[in-house]
Design goal:
The complex is a heterodimer. By secondary structure, chain A is an alpha/beta fold. Chain A has a single domain (about 30-175), classed as Rossmann fold (3-Layer(aba) Sandwich). In chain A, about 50% of the residues lie in helices and about 15% in strands. Chain B is α+β, with helices and mostly antiparallel strands. Chain B has one domain (about 1-85): Arc Repressor Mutant, subunit A, CATH 1.10.10.10. In chain B, about 60% of the residues lie in helices and about 20% in strands. Chain B has helices at about 1-15, 15-30, 35-40, 45-55, 80-85; strands spanning about 30-35, 60-65, 70-75. In chain B, helix 2 packs across helix 4 (about 45-55). Chain B starts with a helix and ends with a helix. Classes of the chains: A alpha/beta, B alpha+beta. The interface of A and B includes residues 29 and 68 of A.
Chain lengths: ~180, ~90
């Protein structure tokens, strides 16, 4: 009779093999992303983006929707930003709340490289004209890790959903090819 | 193709020691609340919430709210969750 540890190890091996087999069969893979925003603001937009991402076989978390009612979304956000095996974290900096969260986590190397930061174009450190502490923080993040994207209304700068869907799709493709 | 993609999603979700332990626990004790799961597994609440969210979004776990004196979330394996565990020889 196999011990539980042995059975779990066997299961993990089978899981890896099956992922490899399935990925090869369809030339695709599955990634996990999170869409962080500013609480109630922008949540409908994130839910719509999630629908598109799920069609692309991407497991998508939105803390406000995925946390049990008895807990606070910030608890899930913190876990996502510190201890998870998530692939990408899209942060749409729409408010001071999200900006503060970004400031907290951007200097944690183990997670910073997974962040894809979306900022209103006017606050982007290269394209924008606004200065200040946050713009300076974005510049530091951009310099160290890249991945600070300016968004707008789709005219001069793309809408946030276009950025998220394009990058998530390409990341998944690269992962399927073994390049990540 | 769609079935293969769904399967890939489920297996990707299970490719984590914590999540595997969570589904095994729910297989033997369905209907545990969030706090009961946290206690059983010794996981920090935020981390447990993250892993449950991944499992839910992958279609392996479902939650039901029960209201008595306070809101209470209870977790169960889905039929797909049970099926995959059987395939892996864990049930």
């Amino acid at each position: 009779m196999k011990t539980l540890t042995r059975r779990l190890n066997d299961a993990r091996r089978k899981i890896r093999e099956e992922i490899e087999r399935l990925a090869k069969e369809i030339g695709d893979t599955c990634i996990i992303v999170a869409l962080l925003g500013a609480g109630g603001r922008g949540i409908e937009e994130r839910r719509l983006i999630k629908l598109y991402l799920e069609k692309m076989n991407i497991i998508t978390l939105i803390p406000e929707d995925d946390i049990p009612e008895e807990l606070s979304p910030s608890l899930l956000e913190e876990a996502i930003l510190t201890k998870s095996d998530i692939d990408l974290i899209f942060v749409n900096v729409e408010s001071w709340g999200t900006a503060t969260e970004f400031a907290q986590f951007h200097d944690k190397r183990e997670i910073a490289y997974k962040l894809r930061v979306l900022v209103p174009a006017e606050y982007h450190p290269i394209y924008g004209r606004e200065g200040g502490y946050l713009t300076d923080l974005y510049l530091t993040h951009l310099t160290l890790y890249g991945h600070v994207y300016a968004y707008g209304n789709g005219e001069r700068f793309p809408k946030p959903e276009k950025i998220i869907l394009t990058i998530a799709k390409r990341f998944k493709e690269l992962k399927a090819l073994g390049k990540i | 193709m769609e079935a293969v993609r769904r399967r890939l999603k489920m297996y990707r979700a299970l490719d984590n020691e914590h999540r595997l332990r969570i589904v095994l626990t729910l297989a033997s004790r369905p209907g545990l609340s969030f706090n009961e799961l946290a206690g059983e597994l010794g996981l920090e609440r935020g981390l447990l919430a993250y892993h449950l969210a991944v499992l839910k979004n992958a279609g392996l776990v479902e939650l039901k709210y029960e209201r008595r004196s306070k809101k209470l979330t209870k977790y169960y394996l889905t039929k797909d969750g049970v099926k995959v565990l059987k395939e892996l020889g864990l049930l």
